[in-house]
Specification:
The complex is a heterodimer of chains A (143) and B (147). Chain A is built from 4 helices and 5 strands, in the order αβαααββββ. With 143 residues, chain A is an alpha+beta fold. The longest helix of chain A is centred in the middle third of the chain and has 15 residues, at 62-76. With 147 residues, chain B is of the alpha+beta class. Chain B has a single domain, classed as Hotdog Thioesterase (Thiol Ester Dehydrase, Chain A, Roll). Chain B is built from 4 helices and 5 strands. A 5-stranded antiparallel beta sheet of chain B has the order 1-3-4-5-2. Classes of the chains: A alpha+beta (143), B alpha+beta (147). Chains A and B meet through α2, α4 and β2 of A and α1, α3 and β2 of B. β2 (82-89) of chain A pairs antiparallel with β2 (84-93) of chain B.
Chain lengths: 143, 147
């Protein structure tokens, strides 16, 4: 599907972008993510280590949640347009949490190379607790 | 115990790794990312890429599989892994990175701020170059050591 901001070129600053709703995080997903990313910190996969660390069990990799945000980004802008992507990790995610990624267009400027856009992103869980927040800057090709 | 701020300027041993199509697919599957450009070269080409591109957060796999292991990293920074939090992560993209590329990465501790309460904030910056010595990406990571 064509990224949202390519077929909604008139979208103005303040526009809320279509949210990406992810299914609840599972323990199996954390195991797969550990293998894929190479981050084998046991607090993400071994229950007793998560308990010992005072986390009350295993917690999701922050980078998994950033990955969800990255997925949302390419539903809004083409992958090739993304120039900068940064997040701050605000709270932990546990198995069972269902993440929704929201975005808002906060900047838009015509430049010589194309249309530069700035998007504010936020990943929240089912209780609306913020897990990560950040920004993405992208350079859209001209129509 | 050493002052965390002594780690400012610390340079890690550089590392190189190949971007594998299978690894891109594996990360896409783990995230539940279904954009076909990450698995289907024809779809990637339709979007103007020369080959399968990486996911925006893929460089972590290069870091973790070819750079210091998590335990090594913590040992070099003298952080107890149970006291570590990932505070911030930022990427800058200068040119596409494709399946088949070989990436060379150099990481440096650019800043450390220790607080009186025992917290410490480490900023690590990594510059990634491809096989043509082209600067393709940069990353900035903030790690937090809790008391």
């Amino acid at each position: 599907m064509e990224p949202y901001l390519l077929h909604n070129r008139e979208a103005e600053v303040g526009t809320e972008l279509p949210a990406l709703e992810k299914p609840p995080v599972t323990r199996m997903q954390l195991i797969k993510f550990a293998g894929a990313s190479g981050d084998f910190n046991p607090i993400h996969t071994i229950e007793s280590v998560g308990q010992e660390a005072g986390l009350g069990g295993v917690i999701a990799h922050g980078m998994l949640i950033m990955g969800f945000v990255g997925q949302a980004l390419t539903t809004w802008v083409p992958r090739a347009s993304i120039k900068k992507f940064g997040v701050r990790f605000s709270s932990i995610t546990r198995p069972g949490d269902a993440i929704t990624v929201r975005g808002e267009l906060v900047g838009k400027e015509e430049t010589d190379e194309g249309v530069w856009v700035k998007i504010k992103v936020q990943a929240v869980d089912q209780k609306n607790e913020v897990k990560v927040k950040g920004t993405c800057e992208a350079l859209l090709p001209r129509a | 115990m050493a002052n965390p701020e002594d780690k400012k300027g610390y340079v890690f041993t550089a590392y190189s790794g190949k971007v594998e199509a299978g690894k891109i697919k594996e990360l896409a599957l783990a995230i539940g990312e279904d954009n076909p450009i990450y698995t289907d070269e024809a779809k990637a080409k339709e979007e103007g890429f020369d080959a399968i591109p990486i996911l925006p957060t893929f460089m972590e796999a290069i870091d973790m599989w070819y750079g210091p292991t998590f335990e090594d990293l913590m040992e070099q920074l003298e952080i107890d892994m149970k006291k570590l939090l990932h505070g911030e992560q930022e990427y800058e993209y200068f040119a596409p990175i494709y399946a088949g590329d070989t990436i060379h990465a150099e990481t440096k501790v650019t800043d450390v701020k220790a607080k009186r309460n025992g917290m410490a904030f480490y900023t690590l910056e990594t510059v990634y170059r491809n096989q043509n010595d082209e600067k393709v990406m940069a990353a900035r990571m903030m790690l937090v050591k809790t008391p």
